[in-house]
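Let us walk through a complete example step by step. Step one is to write down the protein sequence. Step two is to encode the small molecule, zinc ion, as a SMILES string so that its atoms and bonds are unambiguous. Step three, shown after the inputs, is the structure prediction itself.
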Amino acid sequence: MNIFLNFQLFINNASLIFPRTLVNAIYAYSLYCIGFVICLGTLGESSVGPLLFWITLGLYLHGVVTYYRVIKIGPGFTSSHSNLLRLTEDNQAPDFLINNGTQELHICKKCDLYKPPRAHHCSSCNACVLKMDHHCPWFALCIGSQNYKLFIQFLLMSLIFAVWSCAISGWYVWRFIAEESYTDEYMDLNVIINGVIALSMSVSLAVFDGVEMYFLLKGMTTIEYYEKSDFNRDVDVFSGSMMSSKEEEDSLKWRNIFDTGSVRDNWEVVMGTTLWEWLLPVQRSTLGDIHRDEGLSFPVNKENLKIMRRNEQRLRHNNQHSDNVRSRLLGQLSSRSD
Ligand SMILES: [Zn+2]
Ligand SMILES: [Zn+2]
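Step three: the predicted structure of the complex.
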C-alpha cells in the first residue's frame, strides 16, 4: 500500500514539475542561444549586438514573470469563497447568485459548494474553478477567471519571443552561409537546435493564439465553445427529424449569453481598459462590482438570453418528438454551469 501511495505521489509531483521545468528550460535555452551566443557573441563587437541582447532579455523576463504569475495567482476556486458554502439542504444561496438570473442554481456534489455560472469542477485540480477555460498541461493548472488575462498575455508574449528567436537564428544561418564562414569554423549546434524549436513553437503558437483570441473576442471560454458545438450538432439532428426549415433550425442554434455583442467590450472585460494593463503582467483593474471581479457573477446579454429561454420553451412544449435529442438539448439548456 505504501509503495502504491508513494508511486501516486511521485506521479502527481512529476506531472506538476515536468511541464513547468520544460517551459522554463525552453525559455532559458532561447535566452542563452539568442542573447548570449548570437547577440553578445557573434554580434558582440557591433553596436547593434548589445541592443538586441537587451530586447531579448526583456522578452525573456516578461514571458517568465507572466508564466510565474499565472501559477501564483491561480484560476480562482469556489472554495476560496465562504459565501458559496452549502450548509444544509434548505440553506439559502447567496443573493448575487439568485440575482444573476442566468440559469438554475447548481451545487457541486464533490465540493458541496454552490457553483456560480461558468464554474466547472476540474478533476485534476480537484476543485470547482470559476469561469473555467481549460486545464492547461503546460502550467499543470487550470486557467480560469483570475489568471485568464495573464494566460493570454503569456501566449502572445511567447509567440513574439518565438518569432524573434526564429528571426535572429535565421539571420545567423544566412550570415554564416553568405560570408562562407563554414570554410574555417563550425556553426554553433545550439543555435540550430534552438532555431528548430523556435520555428515549431512559432507555428503551433500562431494557431493556438488565433483560436484563443477568437474565443476571447467572442466572449466565450474553451469549454463553452465545445458546449456550443455539441448543442448545435444536436439541433441539426433534432431539426432534421422534424424536417423544419433552415430559418427554424438557425433560430434554435446556441446563443452565447455572455457575449457582450462588442469585440472591444469582450476584450476589455478580460484584458482591462488601459494600454499598461494590456502590456504589463499585472491583474486587470476592477470592473466596479466585487462579484464580477471575483468571477462569481457576469453581465448577461439580454437579447441572447431571451432567445435561449424562448427556445427552451419551444423544446419543452414540443410533444411531437419526445426523443432523446430533445431531452439532451433541454438538459444542456438547464445545466449550462455543470
Ligand atoms: Zn466541485
Ligand atoms: Zn484544473
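Step four is interpretation. The longest strand covers residues 106-108.
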